[in-house]
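Handout, page 2. Input:
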Amino acid sequence: MAMKPILYTGICAAMLCAAPCSASSAEGSGAASSVEAITADYPVRALREGRQGTVIVQVTVAPDGRPKSCLVSSSSGHADLDRAACTSAMRAGGFPPISAQAGERHYLRKAEFRIEE
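Output:
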C-alpha cells in the first residue's frame, strides 16, 4: 500500500484571522494569538521514514513587509519538518507593509505534515 503525503492547509476555527500577533497583544489583552496555516514542502527523507507532526513558527516581519527571521514556537519533534515549515513561512510572504514607526511585527504560521495510508 502506497503512502501519500497530506498537507493540511485548513485553519482551526478558533484561529481564523491572519493578523499579526505580539507578546503584548497576546498576553496583555488576553486576546488569542492568530495562526495562519501554510503549505510546506514535505522533506523527502521525513516522508520516506514516516515522520509526521505539526509545527508552529513565528515570523518576524520588517515594516516594509519583508520577512526577516523565523523561530519555531512549537516543534514537531523533527528538525527537518521544523526547518521546512520555517523555509515555507519565509517564502510565503504576503505580509502587508506598515509605517516604519510601527517597527517589526510577528506572525504565527502553522504547517501540518501528515501521511495518508
